[in-house]
Write a structure and sequence with these properties.
Layout lengths: L34 H16 L10 H16 L3 E9 L2 E9 L4 E11 L9 H20 L6 E8 L7 H9 L2 H4 L2 E7 L10 E3 L16 H14 L5 E3 L8 H5 L4 E5 L8 H7 L23 H20 L5 E5 L8 E2 L12 E4 L4 E2 L3 E3 L9 E4 L16 E5 L3 E2 L7 E10 L8 E7 L3 E8 L10 E6 L7 E9 L7 E11 L1
Parallel strand pairs: 3-4, 3-5, 5-8, 6-7
Antiparallel strand pairs: 1-2, 2-4, 6-8, 9-22, 10-15, 11-14, 12-13, 14-22, 15-21, 16-21, 17-20, 17-22, 18-19, 18-21
């Protein structure tokens, strides 16, 4: 893991927590990854470092030897592999990319971690641990002849320790059309720290600290990993997308990301020691970026749990059967949404409408000109005007309601949509965006309140269980309000979908 923080464009993907989905019940049963096999890979990486000046760093012979070791095993296991080269600091670096045959080529799940070490030592926890656990998971894919619904691609990155150089090279040089096929990236960097914590990347920003959430879909990856640790009775805590590892280039281009982390040079608190065991007041990895990061610098229990978590995430995510779409609207054509359906709206400006939105800014983006898909969305006052407040919501509440939707009997039924709520620091919790389902009863399934802080517009996703409405004719009611004095409030909805 890279020591210095790498600045990424998080403002464009700032979003809010959403209702998390549980892993699909139709996914294949994940395997128990052999700890002995993972440790055998670590022993090989240690031997490679020992034979090549004590490290596996970028531009050093141990780095190429590590890449060749990984590639050789994957070649023999039936993967299509590429040794991608790049140049940094006048030295050649290596990315190992391995594709498993089959799966939807337009729906790719990538799993990766960095293979290089620092020059000071062999880098067995950082990041031999993640590299070895991913490698053994990939080999288990081959042993089980897995037939995923998604296309599986594994990656081992070079020169992470010098600023995410390998993963950045890969993402930058991947054509936009190919990048768009990657629907999720799982990153595993330091998963066997001796004084381990159990951290999962905070995809939904439920912790409310640091850089904010990952792109839409990151929350689901987080939930899947959390589900595994819950199943074995191990509590987790969030870790921020702070740009220190190879998820950075992916989230910077809008690709959802997730992963686990057992801690680096940070100090384990008393509360964390109570939660997970280990020693309070000491680093999670006291050998971080040091010569003592050897094969002795591994917590077997943490490594075993995280290797199994990787397999759980791969099997659960990559083999799940996609749900059937019952109804959807991308707002590219008029389908019969009705503004102010009850005749009770009080907003004098910024009423809901379907249309092509125009960008507005005020201390950051407030109305986004780019919908999630196509050219149109549902937006509160689609025009920009000469200032950000010319067409924002003013005077109270604005509502818009879908046409009638006939839901099938039985379930489960899920309502999903993309959304944002943006406001200035003059907003308050009286301002809001709400989504309700109106059938034989009316249920509020989503709410985001305003606050007295600046909040920039950025698309996020939400999902709600609407199985209680099975067999009914329902309508979706979207509400937004500027109920504070002189507050700037904008909202939008796109890509509404009900699935079974």
């Amino acid at each position: 893991m890279m020591r210095n923080l790498w600045t990424i464009g998080m403002a464009a993907i700032l979003a809010i927590p959403l209702a998390l989905t549980t892993p699909a019940a139709s996914a294949a049963v994940p395997p128990d990854i052999s700890l002995a096999n993972v440790k055998a890979h670590l022993a090989q990486l240690q031997s490679i470092a020992t034979a090549n000046g004590g490290n596996r760093a970028h531009g050093r012979p141990g780095n190429l030897a590590s890449a060749n070791y990984v590639k050789g095993l994957l070649d023999g296991a039936g993967f299509t592999t590429t040794l991608q080269t790049f140049t940094y600091n006048s030295a050649t670096g290596y990315n190992v990319i391995a594709d498993w045959p089959g799966g939807d080529p337009n729906d790719i799940l990538m799993v990766g971690g960095h293979l290089d070490s620092v020059t000071a030592g062999p880098g067995i926890n950082d990041n031999g641990s993640g590299s070895a656990a991913i490698l053994e998971t990939a080999l288990e894919v081959s042993r089980q002849a897995l037939t995923p619904t998604k296309h599986l691609r594994f990656a081992w990155w070079g020169a992470e320790e010098l600023g995410l150089r390998g993963s950045q090279y890969y993402v930058t040089n991947l054509p936009a059309a190919e990048r768009s096929k990657i629907k999720g990236y799982l990153n595993f960097d330091m998963v066997g720290s001796p004084n381990a914590g159990y951290f999962v990347y905070d995809g939904d920003n439920s912790d409310g600290v640091g850089s904010g959430p990952g792109p839409a879909g990151s929350a689901q990856l987080e939930a899947t990993l959390q589900a595994y640790f819950t199943s074995i009775g191990v509590p987790t805590r969030g870790t921020d997308f702070d740009g220190r590892s190879d998820y950075g280039p992916f989230i910077n281009v809008g690709i959802p990301a997730g992963g686990t982390f057992t801690g680096a040079e940070g100090i384990k608190s008393s509360a964390q020691a109570t939660l997970w065991g280990g020693t309070a007041g000491q680093a999670f990895d006291s050998c971080y970026h040091r010569a003592c990061d050897t094969s002795a610098n591994i917590n077997d229990t943490a490594l075993n749990r995280n290797a199994d978590a990787i397999a759980y995430a791969v099997w659960t995510t990559a083999t799940a059967v996609p749900p059937t779409v019952v109804w959807q609207d991308t707002f590219e054509t008029a389908t019969g949404w009705t503004a102010n359906p009850a005749g009770t709206d009080t907003a004098t400006l910024g009423q809901w409408e379907r249309g092509v939105p125009q960008a507005t800014t005020s201390s950051g983006a407030k109305q986004l000109a780019t919908p999630v898909s196509g050219s149109n969305d549902l937006v509160t006052g689609r025009l920009a005007g000469t200032s950000a407040g010319d067409h924002d919501i003013d005077g109270g509440t604005t509502t818009i309601q879908s046409p009638a939707i006939t839901l099938p009997s039985g379930g489960p039924l899920k309502l999903g949509f993309s959304w944002y709520l943006a406001h200035g620091s003059n907003a308050s919790s009286a301002d809001y965006l709400r989504v309700k389902v109106v059938g034989s009863t009316t249920t509020q399934v989503f709410q985001q309140l305003g606050a007295a802080t600046n909040r920039n517009g950025a698309w996020a996703t939400a999902e709600a269980d609407v199985s209680a409405f099975a067999g009914q004719s329902v309508r979706i009611l979207v509400e937004a309000a500027d109920a504070s004095t002189a507050s700037l409030v904008e909202a939008a909805i796109d890509d509404v979908k009900i699935t079974k």
